[in-house]
Amino acid sequence: MTPPAGSLLWAEQLRKAYGPTLALDGAEFSIHPGEVVAVMGPSGSGKSTLLHCLAGIVTPDAGTIMYGGRELSAMSDAERSALRRSEFGFVFQFGQLVPELTCVENVALPLRLNGSSRKEAERAALTWMERLEVDELRKKRPGEVSGGQGQRVAVARSLVTNPRVLFADEPTGALDSLNGERVMELLTDAARSTDAAVVLVTHEARVAAYSDREIVVRDGRSRDMERAV
Ligand SMILES: Nc1ncnc2c1ncn2[C@@H]1O[C@H](COP(=O)(O)OP(=O)(O)OP(=O)(O)O)[C@@H](O)[C@H]1O
Ligand SMILES: [Mg+2]
């Protein structure tokens, strides 16, 4: 099989075993630029494993993953990590901000690691913090902000490199529903405005409602729910 026309990231027949556990057993996936796809399914069904494979963090035992016309498994480790740094953004359940850095330093960090000057990186960081409505927290450390604010800082950090794909694994899992919805609104608006694709892993139908399409994973197999946009 070849990827459908216009798909940015595409996978088929993914298998991944952890000892006797088959985490992925023939999973498939496809996403277009600017599309928000929710990956749903029960705990232990393989959602995070699928996300980690698509992002080139975990290598599947079998199957094909194509990103922008290139096969992930054909790339060297260095090429894959360069891809993760420059083309992919990540948001996790517990923001995983660096506690010793201020919020603006956290958001600027991916640009600093890619070689930008402090001034340049922090200017871009502040633009994203304004969009996520957390610019007033620039001087605070992660320990001094609320859960919802911290997640919005984490979203700003994930977008500061202008990624083509944003991977979000339960980004609102630690938030109450009001904060969760605000994070989802801002995240999807920001991603759509930059035409980034979003791979959104979530348990919650309320969160999946922000997506264009849903994929359900069960026992390591995925099924496209073909929900109309
Ligand atoms: N690093 C690992 N080592 C061993 N087993 C693993 C590892 N990662 C995942 N698994 C197993 O693979 C299966 C799928 O796990 P995965 O984390 O992908 O599920 P999930 O759908 O993300 O679950 P949750 O909703 O609880 O986060 C589970 O049975 C899990 O125990
Ligand atoms: Mg998971």
From TrEMBL:
Keyword set includes ATP-binding: yes
PANTHER family the record matches: ABC TRANSPORTER RELATED (PTHR24220:SF685), IMPORT ATP-BINDING PROTEIN (PTHR24220)
PROSITE patterns, sorted: ABC_TRANSPORTER_2 (PS50893)
Organism: Streptomyces chilikensis
An MF annotation (GO) of this entry: ATP binding
Domain ABC transporter span(s) in chain numbering: 9-229
Signal peptide: none
Keywords per UniProt: ATP-binding, Nucleotide-binding, Transport
CDD domains: ABC_MJ0796_LolCDE_FtsE
Protein name as catalogued: ABC transporter ATP-binding protein
